[in-house]
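Reading a protein record of the kind used here takes only a little practice. Each token is a code from a learned vocabulary of local backbone shapes. With that in mind, consider the following protein and its fold in token form:
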Amino acid sequence: MGRNNDRNIKIHNDKLHKAQDKAKKAAMLRKEKLKEIVKKFNENHSSDNPTTNE
């Protein structure tokens, strides 16, 4: 039985793509959470410390 037969290659690629998709999803979720945190931070600080343009 060969190591690089079509079935083994397909199984490997499926696992690889699943892992890559999971990593992309995690990175996207982190970016979205960071945006929300920054937005909340900016809203809180803009209401606490209003700046005047003179």
Summary: Residues 42 and 48 are 10 Å apart (CA to CA). The radius of gyration is 23 Å. The first helix runs from residue 6 to 48.
